[in-house]
Design goal:
The protein is mainly α. It is built from 5 helices and no strands.
Amino acid sequence: MGDPFSVSVGIGGIIQLADLVVNRTWPFLKEVKNQRLEISKLSSEVASLAGILHSLRLLSEGGAVPIKHGDILECQLTLEGLRDRLKKADGTSSGKRDQVKKLAQQLCFPYERVEMQKILERLERLKSTFNLALTAESIASQIDLKADVKAVKDELFRRKKLEAKIELYEK
């Protein structure tokens, strides 16, 4: 994406979007009795994605993040699509419950289940991509740490040899 600050801010916005999607799935758990499992899975997948994004945001605050801008954009677009779809249930009037029922009825069609499965698969792929980035960064950090430990060990060994020579010279 760019500098670590803009990456962190961008990921922070996506985390808020994920939290909003999770919150908007709750009314559907009450209204859509025959698809509770799918809706619960959707909510769980988005919440899990948000957790991974929190880790990425923390990582981005420390420097570069090994993820592609396209993956972040795809995540954002996916969550925006979910938010917009669930937003139809929003309303401030007493008709909110009717709007939720109307959207719930739309979610009951078999085509919608197929669409829901595709969304779940996309979310799972994004989670895997971001987890892979976290793993790669973790491995890179371990390699750096190992090199640092080796450098310290080499320096200690050098000093020990030097001290041994000094002791011999003083005798």
